[in-house]
Write a structure and sequence with these properties.
By secondary structure, the chain is of the alpha/beta class. It folds into 2 domains: about 180 residues, Rossmann fold (3-Layer(aba) Sandwich), CATH 3.40.50.720; about 200 residues, N-(1-d-carboxylethyl)-l-norvaline Dehydrogenase, domain 2 (Orthogonal Bundle), CATH 1.10.1040. It has 17 helices and 8 strands. Strands 3-2-1-4-5-6-7-8 form an 8-stranded mixed sheet, with helices on both faces. A hairpin with an 8-residue loop joins β6 and β7. The protein is globular, with a radius of gyration of 22 Å. It starts with a strand and ends in an 8-residue tail after the last helix. Bound molecules: nicotinamide-adenine-dinucleotide. Nicotinamide-adenine-dinucleotide binds next to α1 and α4.
């Protein structure tokens, strides 16, 4: 089956690589010729590194790269079985591309968008046959991250959903199905990992190094929130937060913080600019955490119950199944445990009491507990027992 990829930026190049590695002939399209050139140079470099590491042979590299053909005309997609769009995050531009694309491809070609924040329903609405449109959300870097969220719009047919899920599964990705709502699963449920950590810092409960230490050493997370924000980029992380908050009609639970906004405005974007919450300048040393076990445990508990609350609410609102919510967070952002499973282990009543305590103290909507937690606690039920 031929695969079309629209947009040869960070994500498009990665998706083209995965598809070619899975044996497909790939047509990579971009309106910008230098983006296509850059993408092919980048792919050559990535593949050469894989050869050096012994992951692929020289011949396999040649075959894989030979299967990727750049093009500056959408008509190259005429025989594709699926086209995945990964262009700029702009609804009007995406709609235009989908419209032109639909006129070029076969009737049974699946049209997918890799959008992180736009509604799949609105993209699908630009097509004559919206039943063939689906969201296929890869994570960055696409070839390395195992998780892919599959997002059916209200218009998407069961067949499109099933075919796209099994195709992406055959590319050795872990797929989860998410409802077409802001942030899908990962970018919604993960918000408190950053937001609550920043809040704890803003209130002077602990400094960044201590919060990062606690989340890693006590919580078992691979990276601390501040380290991770510096890695992702404070501009990107802030924008995701702001987009999710706006898309949820300004639900205070997702309200962005001034701390991060100022980092972005100052150009302290993280590793990529040499300075973020921490300095990455040559010879700079990382600040020492205050390894106070009691403080550390309180930090982890507060962030964890906020994350569990998001996961519970996502389940309550049918965003995804309990298995997919847990899988998304362990595979998409490397959490040490699925949040709903974690809730069962910690005790749902305890989680609820923690949230209610915060709510009582702050009288802020961000601490309102999901009604599902309240129901589970009242009936002494677990997430994983039925
Ligand atoms: N970068 C991430 O971490 C990430 C993760 C998941 C999803 N996404 C989503 O993937 C998409 C692409 O993101 P990216 O980071 O790869 O962007 P990018 O800026 O690296 O690349 C976008 C590419 O699209 C091309 N382009 C723009 N308009 C076009 C058009 N009309 N037709 C064809 N090509 C066009 C640009 O020339 C550019 O090469 C966005 O929807 C984004 O939300 C990004």
């Amino acid at each position: 089956m031929e695969v079309g990829v629209i947009g040869a930026g960070t994500m498009g190049a990665g998706i083209a690589q995965i598809a070619a590695q899975s044996g497909h002939k790939v047509y990579l399209y971009d309106t910008n010729d230098s983006a296509l050139e850059r993408a092919m140079k980048g792919l050559q470099k990535v593949m050469s590194r894989l050869v050096e590491k012994g992951r692929v042979t020289e011949q396999e590299m040649k075959d894989i790269l030979g299967r990727i053909q750049t093009c500056s005309d959408l008509s190259a997609m005429a025989n594709a079985g699926i086209v995945i769009e990964a262009i700029i995050e702009n609804i009007d531009v995406k709609k235009e591309v989908f419209q032109s694309l639909e006129a070029m491809v076969a009737n049974d070609c699946i049209l997918a968008s890799n959008t992180s924040s736009l509604s799949i329903a609105s993209i699908a609405a630009s097509c004559e046959n919206p039943a063939r449109v689906v969201g296929i959300h890869f994570f960055n870097p696409a070839p390395l991250m195992p998780l892919v969220e599959i997002i059916p719009a209200v218009q998407t047919s069961a067949e499109t959903l099933q075919q796209s899920r099994s195709l992406i599964g055959s590319w050795r990705k872990v797929t989860v199905v998410a409802k077409d709502t802001p942030g899908f699963i990962v970018n919604r449920v993960a918000r408190p990992f950053y937001g609550e950590a920043i809040r704890i810092y803003e209130e002077g409960i602990a400094d960044m190094a201590t919060i990062d230490w606690a989340m890693k050493e006590i919580g078992g997370f691979r990276m601390g929130p501040f380290e991770l924000m510096d890695y992702i980029g404070n501009d990107i992380n802030y924008t995701v937060t702001e987009t999710v908050w706006t898309a949820f009609y300004y639900d205070p639970r997702y309200k962005p913080s001034f701390t991060q906004k100022r980092m972005m405005e100052a150009g302290y974007l993280g590793r990529k600019t040499g300075r973020g919450y921490y300095s990455y300048a040559e010879g700079a040393s990382m600040p020492e955490p205050d390894k106070n076990q009691k403080v550390g445990e309180a930090i982890v508990w507060r962030v964890l119950i906020m994350l569990i609350n998001e996961a519970a609410d996502a389940l309550h609102l049918g965003i995804a199944s309990r298995e997919d919510i847990d899988l998304a967070m362990t595979m998409g952002v490397n959490y040490p445990k699925g949040l709903l499973k974690w809730a069962d282990e910690k005790g749902i009543q305890e989680v609820l009491d923690g949230l209610d305590k915060l709510y009582l103290a702050y009288h802020e909507e961000r601490y309102r507990a999901s009604v599902l937690l309240r129901q589970k606690a009242a009936f002494k039920q677990l997430f994983y027992k039925d």
